[in-house]
């Protein structure tokens, strides 16, 4: 009965004016949020296949939900994370290798040559803005950017490894945000 109520609330929510207005104007993050939430809900109930499928769809909308793959690893280790990664690669190239490689090239280009504009929160954009303001010499911009990215990756890696290996994975019927 609670699943029926949850589905009913979701259907009603997605048919409200603000959601339809956002989707009509191309702001599809609400759909990404739906699939990410569905994936986390399925994880909390132990439905691995549904969780992987929903998180793959969320990752295909935008790349940042791929971080939720770390929850798959913490819960189920390599087997499920491998399926998540394989399905994402399959979905990336499902429309052809030219389109898949074109997407990879675009993402790589945006990472290597960020544009400095208000609202761009990329670390490379921050370093570029520091050069523009005269706080950093132009010849050090690339080095500072790489150091910033390395610091973030190291912090995430240490936190992830600490959480992933501090205990054996347990499959429970509930999921806490603190996990």
How would you concisely characterize the structure shown here?
The chain is mainly alpha-helical. It contains nine helices and no strands.
Note the gap between the termini.
27 Å
The residue ranges in which pLDDT falls below 50 over 5 or more consecutive positions are none
What is the overall silhouette? globular
Mean pLDDT: 78
Topology pattern, helix = H, strand = E: HHHHHHHHH
Count the strands?
0
Write the layout of secondary structure elements.
Layout: H1 2-14, H2 17-24, H3 29-45, H4 48-61, H5 69-76, H6 78-92, H7 97-112, H8 123-132, H9 141-165
Question: What would you say this structure looks like, in words?
Answer:
With 179 residues, the protein is mainly α. The chain has 9 helices and no strands. It has helices at 2-14, 17-24, 29-45, 48-61, 69-76, 78-92, 97-112, 123-132, 141-165. Helix 8 (123-132) packs antiparallel against helix 9 (141-165). The model has no long low-confidence stretch (mean pLDDT 78).
List its traits:
single chain; 179 residues; mainly alpha; 9 helices; globular
């Amino acid at each position: 009965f609670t699943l029926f109520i949850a589905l009913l609330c979701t259907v009603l929510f997605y048919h409200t004016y603000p959601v339809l207005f956002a989707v009509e104007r191309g702001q599809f993050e609400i759909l990404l949020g739906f699939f990410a939430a569905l994936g986390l809900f399925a994880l909390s109930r132990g439905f691995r296949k549904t969780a992987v499928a929903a998180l793959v769809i969320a990752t295909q909308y935008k790349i940042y939900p791929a971080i939720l793959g770390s929850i798959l690893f913490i819960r189920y280790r390599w087997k499920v994370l491998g399926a998540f990664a394989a399905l994402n690669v399959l979905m990336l190239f499902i429309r052809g290798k030219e389109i898949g490689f074109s997407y990879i090239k675009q993402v790589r280009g945006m990472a290597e040559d960020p544009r400095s504009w208000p609202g761009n929160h990329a670390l490379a954009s921050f370093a570029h803005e520091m050069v523009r303001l005269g706080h950093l010499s132009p010849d050090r911009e690339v080095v500072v950017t790489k150091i910033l990215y390395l610091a973030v990756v190291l912090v995430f890696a240490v936190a992830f490894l600490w959480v992933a290996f501090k205990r054996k994975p347990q499959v429970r019927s509930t999921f806490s945000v603190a996990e």
